[in-house]
Amino acid sequence: MREGAFWDVQHGRVPPPPAAVTLGWELVHVDPDAGTIDVAFEAGERFLNPAGVVQGGFLAAMLDDTLGPALVATLPPGRFAPTLNLQVQFLRPARPGRLLGHGEVVKRGRDICFLSGTLSDADGTLLATATATAKIQTLAR
After folding, report:
1. In angstroms, rounded to a whole number, what is the distance separating the alpha carbons of residues 59 and 6?
2. C-beta separation of 126 from 91 below 8 A
3. Nearest-5° angle of CA 57, CA 9, CA 83?
4. At residue 119, what are phi and psi to the nearest 5 degrees?
5. Which residues contact 13 (CB under 8 A, 6 or more apart)?
6. Maximum pairwise Cα distance, the chain
7. DSSP for residue 75
8. pLDDT per residue over 2-56, tens digit each?
């Protein structure tokens, strides 16, 4: 059985982070050896902006909560990887409903890692892309 921050949540040893709960985060598939992850989110009506589409900040948070776990799933116990930089490109408006995130570790250094990912709707339409830089460090408790 794997251990570490990501796996503690997946195996019910600790509750999920409140941000993940708010976003309706759901693990679809993870391959820590390949550094990839697929997750789903539930974009509710409370995420809408005045134009009736999901506000971009929620999409950015979903992408951050896709890319980060792709890396954190590979880390040993006591290690975490906060995001240092997140670049998001919004391609299409997102409607309420199930949104799908795919993330991958592009390059992993000793401390600094580069990540990329996508966010699509349930029909597979690409909504946004992102790249991120994260720093592996000791988890402060």
Report:
1. 21
2. yes
3. 40
4. -130, 125
5. 7
6. 46
7. S
8. 888 899 999 999 999 999 999 999 999 999 999 999 999 999 999 999 999 999 9
